[in-house]
Amino acid sequence: MNNKGIFRDQIISNFDWVIFGLTIVISVVGIFTIYSTGGSGGEPSRIYIKQIYWILYGLMAMLLILFIDYHSLEKLAYILYFLIIIVLIMVAVSGKTVSGARRWLSFAQITFQPSELAKIVIIITLARYFDDKKIRGLYRIRDLITPAVIVLIPAVLIAKQPDLGTAVVIFFIFISMAFLIGINIRSLFILAGSAIISLPFLWHFMKDYQRNRILTLINPQADPLGSGYHIIQSKIAIGSGGYMGKGFMSGTQSQLNFLPEKHTDFIFSVFAEEMGFIGALLLIALYVIIIIKGIDVVYHARDRSGSLMAGGVVSMLAFHMIFNIGMTTGMFPVVGIPLPLMSYGGSYLVTTFISIGLLLNIKMRRFVDMR
Predict the structure, then answer these.
(1) Which residues have a Cβ under 8 Å from the Cβ of 129 and sit 6 or more positions away?
(2) For residue 2, is it within any domain?
(3) Is residue 354 within 8 Å of 65, Cβ to Cβ?
(4) The whole model's pTM is what?
């Protein structure tokens, strides 16, 4: 067998079928859950058909990422970063406004949310920066100034849309990747202290509805028909599912339209009501397996850049999963963070497939020198 054949066999043999298989399984579960959310008059929602199309688009995007060596993406990092900043500025200037938020751009018949793609670009850009700027020992505050600026520019543009949830995810990605490269304890305490001190300033710049969501977390009963309605109805849905659930398309909170945003932010509540505690636990277990397998990719990647990219992807997926479930159970404020592969939405779903494709890309090239 020639070198090209050996190389191809090595790539294929390192493909992680477990991560890919679980991605498909959760996506299919998401389709059925969206179908069961119901439409007007109790009829099944038709948006599940759109979700199927988005999954197919996501699979095509994943396939494309698998064929591109992640080192090539790393080389293009700063160009991609510059382009995404331009696109985010375009959103701020001429983006499509829906429900008071300007987050979308439209080209022909396609509408997409650039802030979702920005998360992947930031992961690749930070990996490139940290891979280029190697230092001796642990990172200090002054070593993190430049990457912090890299993150801050798109985060501010996204927060102004307003999209506080995605901005928080981007910040968490930065913190996670900083931990991965190594940060000394003193700098860690300074960062934590700075975050605490900045809270009053952050509160000042928040929209009224964003402040209400945080206050509602403390006492949702203070405004049960207003800002507290989402959390109250979500907790009712999850609790009423019991151990075994009410059955497919038998959840009263969903079918009777008591639960808002049931196909997006609160898709987990719909699933938990229908499948119960056991079903919800099994779904969480699927996510945990993906995250554990992802951590394995982080620690066994061929090089530093691969490890950093994988770490960024894993932290992003983990944060979305933990925060969304925490949001639906009343542990975290409602900030519009979707559940990976389950929540309805084209931009986020395709981005999730791309991120998982990047993770598989790094795993496939674990033992192969592509440079």
Answers:
(1) 77, 146, 147, 150
(2) no
(3) yes
(4) 0.89
User: DSSP assignment of 269-331, as one string?
Assistant: HHHHHHHHHHHHHHHHHHHHHHHHHHHHHHHH-SSHHHHHHHHHHHHHHHHHHHHHHHHHTTS
Q: Residue 180 falls within a domain, yes or no?
A: yes
Q: How many domains does the chain have?
A: 1
Domain residue limits at 126 = 18-364
The one-digit pLDDT tens for each residue of the chain (371 residues) are 444 554 465 667 788 899 999 999 999 999 999 998 865 444 455 788 999 999 999 999 999 999 899 999 999 999 999 999 999 999 888 878 777 778 878 776 778 888 999 999 999 999 999 998 877 778 888 888 899 999 999 998 998 887 888 888 998 899 899 888 888 888 777 777 777 787 677 666 666 666 776 766 666 665 665 667 778 888 888 888 888 888 888 787 777 777 777 888 889 999 999 999 999 999 999 999 999 999 999 999 988 999 999 999 999 999 999 999 998 988 888 888 899 999 998 899 999 999 999 999 999 887 665 44
219 located within any domain:
yes
Neighbour tally for 196: CB within 10 Å? 9
9 found inside a domain: no
